[in-house]
Design goal:
two-stranded antiparallel ribbon; mainly alpha; single chain; 2 strands; 2% strand
Length: 170
């Protein structure tokens, strides 16, 4: 007699379409969809990690761009004020002759760098967590890959990432 608790996918199993999440509490009969294969669990976890971490990096990059433009506007306003006009030409050049134009020249790099770094982090962490979850579901035997459980794992992953990188420091 074998003590194996292997769960195999039903014969009619098709990989659920992405993202098609459901809320498992009070779900309708037949609404529950599960992920059975390691590649499905990995792909789902990776995609949602890329979306959430990429979205967070994009929002932070937009905020950084807006702050750079706000700084350029303040410098421009100062240069146009009385004390700014009284500055020597050398000091005016230190502030920038046209701060807004100078900012536009390089500020587009901020979202690019943030997104490249964020996508690299998301790919590594999403792949690791996806494979770990997939192996856990396959070896655990009694677990089916509920999508809600995967989303909770991704939430924990993002929270840990934010704490480790100092994102939640007050």
């Amino acid at each position: 007699m074998s003590n194996s608790y292997s769960i195999t996918a039903p014969l009619s199993y098709k990989t659920p379409s992405f993202p098609s999440l459901y809320w498992p509490i009070r779900a309708s009969v037949g609404e529950a969809k599960y992920l059975y294969h390691l590649t499905d669990i990995w792909r789902f976890t990776l995609c949602w990690t890329l979306i959430t971490v990429g979205g967070a990096h994009f929002l932070v990059a937009i905020w950084a761009v807006l702050m750079q433009f706000a700084s350029a506007l303040r410098r421009r306003a100062y240069l146009d004020s009385g004390p700014g006009r009284a500055l020597s030409p050398k000091n005016r050049r230190l502030f920038g002759e046209n701060p807004i134009r100078q900012t536009v020249g390089w500020v587009w790099l901020i979202p690019l760098v943030y997104l490249v770094i964020g996508m690299a982090e998301a790919f590594v962490s999403g792949s690791l967590v996806g494979v770990i979850l997939g192996v856990m579901y396959q070896t655990g035997g009694q677990f089916q890959g509920s999508r809600r459980a995967l989303m909770e794992a991704i939430e924990v992953e993002v929270t840990i990432w934010a704490v480790e990188t100092g994102g939640l420091n007050g």
